[in-house]
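Its record is retained below.
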Amino acid sequence: MNERSAARLEHLRASLSRGGSLRLAEAAVLCGVSEMTIRRDLAGGDSGLVLVGGLLMQADDPRHAPAYDLLAQHDRHAESKQRLCDRALAMLEEGDTLFIDCGTTLMPLAANLPSDLSLTVVTYALNVAEAVSQRPGVRLWLSGGLYQSSSRSFEGEEMTDTITRLGINKAFISAAGVHPRQGLSCFHFHEVAPKQAAIATAQRRILVVDPSKHGMVRPARFADLGDIDEVISEADVASV
């Protein structure tokens, strides 16, 4: 990291020292550079700042922590996620083409696909792809693009077209927020397009959600509860 980059980051940290957030465009104006330069500064090292949905904030801001600590999310409600995915596994049939969403909720599903079924898995999540690639009899379709380390998933302009061209029998959808009135939402805006494409395309749309997501509303809304055919959960999501 060069001196000018370090100076810009220090200026931004000072501006955010009392909390709050800055839009990326505001941060660029504040430093007298382009938005791309700010992005490069952030990518250049551990700045203590993060960019969340176009908003720059401190990495220890409580609004950031639950969205980006994927390793911590892996262990949260692990037993519940395993029970939910056991129910999802029981729905699989020979020859199914599955969409498996990103995040940690569906990892027990991806890691335990039955070896006696011939399946095709469509995903844009690297952690899901890594788990699926170890399963015998599974054909993997990984939709790529720009890698987003925050959620170990990809973002790409052609992703929607790719997903909608596939014959998906069952789409297993995850959400960071499930609200009876405001619908389904997630933290990351790049997840909206592939989720919506899978929901629009799949023969059967299945939401898999652990109790911690009930009643929550996250920044990126992607569907109504009515867009889902079935919910696998441990509570009635319509009543939360």
User: Anything to note?
Assistant: The first strand starts at residue 22 and ends at 23. The radius of gyration is 19 Å. The chain has a mean pLDDT of 87. Residues 3-15 form the longest helix (13 residues).
